[in-house]
Design goal:
The protein has 2 helices and 2 strands. The chain has about 50 residues and is mainly α. It has a two-stranded antiparallel sheet with strand order 1-2. The chain is rod-shaped.
Length: about 50
């Protein structure tokens, strides 16, 4: 039984697509990030803070 559960967990981990996000997820990530070219006062050395 432990071997079966171990293999099942291994197959679940292998089947995941790491790093592939939907466009909706990317939009949510970029929602509150300022554009440093348009609003430089919200950035420090070209990086949003």
């Amino acid at each position: 039984m432990k071997v079966f559960l171990g293999l099942f967990a291994l197959f679940l981990l292998v089947s995941c697509k790491v790093g592939e996000f939907t466009p909706e997820r990317h939009a949510l990530y970029d929602l509150n990030r300022p554009d440093c070219e348009k609003t430089p006062e919200k950035c420090i050395n070209g990086y949003p803070w």
